[in-house]
Every structure is written in structure tokens, then in C-alpha cells.
Design goal:
Helix content: 40-55%
Strand content: 15-25%
Strand order of the largest sheet: 1-2-3-4-5-6
Number of helices: 9
Structural class: alpha/beta
Radius of gyration: 18 Å
Largest sheet: 6 strands, mixed
CATH topology: 2-enoyl-CoA Hydratase, Chain A, domain 1
Number of domains: 1
CATH architecture: Alpha-Beta Complex
CATH superfamily: 2-enoyl-CoA Hydratase, Chain A, domain 1
CATH class: Alpha Beta
Low-confidence stretches: 1-9
Amino acid sequence: METETTPRPTMEFRYLKIDRRDNYAVVRMCKEPVNSMNLDLWADLSRCLEYLESQDWCKGFVLTSGLKRPIFTAGNDLKELYAKTTSKSRFSDFWRAQTGFLVRLNRTKLVVVAAIKGACPAGGCITALGCDYRVMTEKGYIGLNEVLIGVPVPRYWCKSMERIIGARHAHTALMTGKMFKPKEALAVGLVDQVVPEDRLLATAEAVLSKWVKIPSFGVQATKHFMKEELAKQMEDYCEEEIKVTWDILTSPMITGPMERYMSSLGKAKKSKL
């Protein structure tokens, strides 16, 4: 029998920190410098979700950033997408890890609240869209901006955004790579609350605390009705998407713009030194 003095063991993760509350957890992404989402971070997220689902005490979790700087996550690590810095085998593993987590996130019986601090583009945005509720700071931005570097937004990422903000808003945002400021995101329903940074975690935990008190079966079944179709589509399309996306990433139409973009990032870093 667990008492107040009994240690509460958790699994160890490379880039995540888990703080256990009474009947939920706070999961912090801590991959310096910007929580770039590479194969290892996606794998960590999957293992963490699997672990929390296996714990009888856990009814949900808050997903947030453990970085000091105002970044939820900068999105996918471009080294995983740039053909010259990866391989077909590595990319395939990366895409399976990414899709595997997103499928599980949409299917999980746990209640998941995203506490978004600052920047939340691309992979960060699709992760937040897979959560059940999104709280964001007053400063930052969020969106699926892949087209700005010449890469198409993945098919079911588009569907995920459409499901949350509607086809009209999603069409314009996805086609232009729009980054929503917090108040804009709130206005279209991309996030549910906007709060000062010093109230972010407390607000997210307050939302989750209320949610996990609702009888779980009804919540879980309703969530399944709303999200299972999208999860199944993501899962079924994964292997085909790997092939299609790899062909795109290795085409001259993409490698040229990405090379220039990667070069510009390198110059920007040097200018700050």
C-alpha cells in the first residue's frame, strides 16, 4: 500500500521530466536549446505516453516545455528532413516514431492538456492539436508553417487542423504557413485560453484537475468517437506517407530551397556569436 512517504518511481527519459501529482502528471520537454523534435524526442514522447497509460493513478497529463526560453518546441529537427543530413532508413524510422506518437496521442484514454509557452510551429503545433485542451501564453505563435520552406503539410496534419478550426480558417493558414499570434489563435479556436506566462502551468493544471474528476468512461468513449477516425487514417497512411514524403524531400525542387534555408540558419547563428 502506498503512503505519503512511499517513493513514487517513474521511468527515466532522455529529454522529458515527469512530475507526478495526485492523479495526473506534468510532462516537461527539456531538449536544449529549442526542443527540436528529432527521432529521439518523438520516441521519448511515445514511451512516456505508454508509461503513463500503464499507471493506475494517472488520469491525464499536462504537456509543456521545461526550457527557460519561451519555446514550447521549435518543431521538427530539420536535420531529420534535409536529405543531405539524413538517409532513407533514418527518415523512415523518424517518420514512424513521429506518426506513432501522434496516433497514440489521439487515441489515448488519458486527458491531455497542452501548456504552450511561446513558439509552437509545425511539429509542436500538431502535437498541441492532438491534445484535448490548449492553454497558451500571451506572447508566442502557433501554426503549421511547413510551406514556408517548400515542404507540404502532411495530409492528416491538415485534417487535424481542419477538425479544430474549421476548413475555411485552415485552408488559408495551411496554404500560407500562417503563424497565429495568441489572440488570433484564441479567436479561431486553435487554443482555448491565453494567459500570462506566470499563470500558464497553474491554469493548465486547474483545467486538467476538473476534467479528470468527470466519470472517465463517458469522456473516453466520446473522445474515441471524435478522434479515432483521424488516428486510424494517420496510422494506415504512415508507410505510404514515408515513401511519398521521402520522394518529395529528395527532389531538386525541395533540396535547393531547404539547402538555402539551412544555410541562412547557420549564418544567423554565427551572427549571434
